[in-house]
Amino acid sequence: MNLVGLLVSIALSSAFAEQEVPETIFLPYSETEDVDFTIDRPSRVGCYQWSCENEEVIELIPINTDHKLQCGSRLEIKILPKTADPNGPVKLTILAENVDMEAYENAAIQSIEYTVVVVPVGKLEVMGLKTELQAGDEPVPYGVAAYDKEGNEFDTLDGVQLGWFVGAKKDVARFQGSQTGPIVQLEPLSAGKGAVICLINDPNYEGLEPALLDFTVSAPLQMEPDGIYLLAGGEAKLALFEKIGKKDNPVLSPIIIKGDLAEFTIASREDDIVRVDMEREVVIAGIPDDETSILVKDLEGNILKGVPIRTASPHRMEIKSHPYPESKQLIVNQEYDINITIFDKEDHKIYPSENILTKTTFGKQFDIIEISMNGLWAKVRPTMVGIGKIKASLRSTLTPDDDETEITPHIKGVTDFEIYESVLVNPRQTVLPWDAATKPDYQLSYKVT
């Protein structure tokens, strides 16, 4: 049986409770719970009395609609735990006798025998509506079917204690709602591979192999760095994210890219241009003024995503103060961020790798509050009025072993900042009336101290 058939069968059973029941019914042996099953006569035609000789194994619960004749068209049965043979089939015969033939003239069958076979489960099979899932999608139904050792499928697992699990290296999916019946809902969470696992929690089935079904969850990937320009020997941290949630408002979730939990690998298309160091989780630029791609692959080597990465030679440096980068005027005792940007000949910004070595000097007008290791950023405070010079000279890149790789051509940058005392303007705010007809002309005077 496929999952669609299993879902339809359960839906019909729940909605109409009168689907055609085969005359031979296979029910699983259980040591812990009653196994329940319902027999309904088609279209509820006939009024039957039900009987079975082996009352030690089976309990009959007739649903009577005619209380005078003690008959009806439905029978609920229970296979009592630990009563049948745990090693082989036990066959039971249920006799249904129509005791109201006059009222049911169209009932062609006066009596019918049902054979109930109680037998241990020999095999489980997990089925899924689909196994290629997308993170953030609605939950997907998965189900389990059971067979005896001869391959006969059981008509129900109701009453059998089932255990459901998700097997994966990380949280790629989770069950939503109940996990006690033969149907569960699997919610895909994040990119990766996993398996839906089902087993029977019954002492008689400790040796039964669990059933599993592999699934894959995919999610849009975002790679960093993406499209940057690196100096020869310059490094950039690697990071991989997946976009989870709504397409119009996704959440970026970091993905492990090394170690036993990694579901992806990252490699360079051309190692002589850019090399990937997975131990340190960085990319390292090689030959300058070239371009290649960083590739994301699954564990089978299939390329899932690629981002461009470029190497460049330095051409010029630009020194600016923030929060007002277009201004070269500073105020005494105010704090400023100084950013130094390197450009190539085409004016592309070069990535400020942490292993770049820049000699940055500040005029006597500045107190240096903080400065980065690569010298490309600093927080400063002007302390006196005047022209304050900030100079930068690009030297080299540094290897993990602290060896320097000289960067050519040698470039320098310098910016003269005008430093002033802060001023106070009075009044700080002026509100003037306006008349569109007379269009008044005002002359204002301010006091600056």
The best one-word shape is elongated
Average residue pLDDT: 90
| Approximate helicity band | under 10%
Total count of helical runs of at least 4 residues: 1
Number of strands: 36
Radius of gyration (CA) equals 39 Å
Distance between the termini: 90 Å
- Uncertain parts: 8-18
Structural class by SSE content: mainly beta
Per DSSP, what share of the residues sits in E-state strands of 2 or more residues? Answer: over 45%
Largest sheet features:
5 strands, mixed
Tell me what you see in this structure.
By secondary structure, the protein is an all-beta fold. It contains 1 helix and 36 strands. The protein has one helix spanning 3-15, and strands at residues 24-28, 35-40, 48-51, 58-63, 74-79, 90-98, 111-119, 123-128, 132-134, 140-147, 162-168, 173-176, 183-188, 192-200, 211-218, 221-224, 229-231, 235-237, 239-244, 251-254, 264-268, 274-277, 282-285, 290-298, 303-312, 316-322, 329-331, 336-343, 356-362, 366-371, 377-382, 386-398, 404-406, 412-420, 425-426, 447-448. The strands form 10 sheets. Strands 27, 29, 32, 33 and 34 form a 5-stranded mixed sheet that branches. The radius of gyration is 39 Å and the shape is elongated. It starts with a helix and ends with a strand.
